[in-house]
Description:
This protein is of the alpha/beta class. The protein has 2 domains: 67-72 and 204-494, TIM Barrel (Alpha-Beta Barrel); 81-196, Diaminopimelate Epimerase, Chain A, domain 1. Helices cover 30% and strands 20% of the residues. It is built from 18 helices and 25 strands. Helix 10 links the parallel strand 19 and strand 20 (366-369).
Amino acid sequence: MRTRLVLLSARLLDPGTGTFLPETALAVSDEGRISALGDDREIRALAGPATTVVDLKGAVVTPGLVDGHLHPVSGAELTHGLDLSYCADLDDVREALAHEVRNLGRGDWLFGWGLDPNVFGDHPVGVAPFDAVLDGIPAFLLLFDAHSALASRRALELAGVDGPRTFTQASAEVVCDTDGRPTGLLQEDAACELVERVAPRPTPEESRERLAAALRSMAAAGLTGGHAMDANGDSLRLYGELDTAGELPLRLRVAPWCQPGTDADGVRALVAQQGTGGALWRVAGVKLFMDGTIDNGTAWLERPDCHGESTHAFWPDPAAYTHIVGELHRAGVTTATHAIGDAAVRHVLDSVEKARAGGGNEVRHRVEHIETVPDDTLRRFADLGVLASMQPTHCCDFTRADHTDNWSRRLGEERASRAWRCRDLADSGATVVLGSDWPIAPFPPLGVMAGARHRRPSRDLGQAPHGPEQALTALEALRGMTTAPAYAAGEEHEAGRLGLGFRADLTVFAGNPLTTAATDLPDLPVLLTVLDGRITHRAAGV
Length: 542
């Protein structure tokens, strides 16, 4: 067996035990598996003429970090526009838009992303505050949750959107004023697509390069894999092209969407698609939505928010969702359901319980986001074997400890105090998978793990944490991006640990991520990233 890679003088940290292995070196076979563990002398002897040998000089090696929830293709496209995430108020947004407008050509569209609804304060979310600066400019500004957007007057005109519309998605809406005129706010994908379909699209070459660049940045941040929660547009083609060309630096599991209105033929097509893919990517699981978001009033809550909103499921008939989950369960297909509000989460758990009662395969279903849930929901995750997929940086960067943010004000004190219950879910026995939901939040995995530990705004770590009692330990955070995503994928026998025969997907740090302070963790240097035994990122001097 030929040796592809040898790592020497390493500290091998296994998240399964939370301790360092006694060995100081490892070898990787040509099949991309850990083929030997031992001391430097033993492992160096396995190197051949074509073997890459790296002396790590005491650096810490962990299994490769995996983002449990991200959107690589749509993220690469959306983040190509104007970044509005740094804007703190309406004046900041107007200034950013005005600068961008000055650089536009005649007839060009302006695309923005990351707009925080908190910039509107007590004013309604709409395009009116930006009418003067966007006069005659077609603009599409995605709000940070990517479930809603603002379209300028000119963009609405080009799309022929001049009043309310009816959609199969229950929470989708062209928001209009009392006179029936659009305010510019578009809720959920179905409404946003009315404008997106008339906007210019990138060429296939541009899409491929944007995706490749984003994935290279992810590898440089220490990621070796990701659970991609969509297969929309050209996603699968782009993954296939990069994989064939040897340019895919992450191992990807892709979950295509199942939307309201999907019939029996559609479900059969989703089942048939499972397992297709290439060397480093494959279709695995199905993504569904049970609600929208709290910030834009489209979550599904057991009691309305302070505006009387968030009272409906994403599926007009929630029973249809339950039926499809049952069909996928019987086919052995995992589901990952976006469920943010308490009513949405409860319905997903009820649906999984019903599916399990009907027999069939032992399938590891997931709930994505889980932003607020009551006590009686917690234990059901472990009892039903449902994984809790969470994004703690959402809590850090989009809410405030004093509950003066839009998310908290909508929910009220009682429900806002149940924000992102990572600690309670872990203590109840649930497997907690961590991710970024990029492009909703930044993808660097050390920032995600840090947020799970400190729960403070990443731009101002001096602020108070939101729900510090819900923080995870350093080891739990590391497991959330190693052993937990491996378990979610049914790959715990070959991924997420350091052991013989396990995949050689590895992340190498300058120091120990378990003893580095949470507030310092995002700055811990990533020295080496290895995928399938091949180096995808190597820091200078390593």
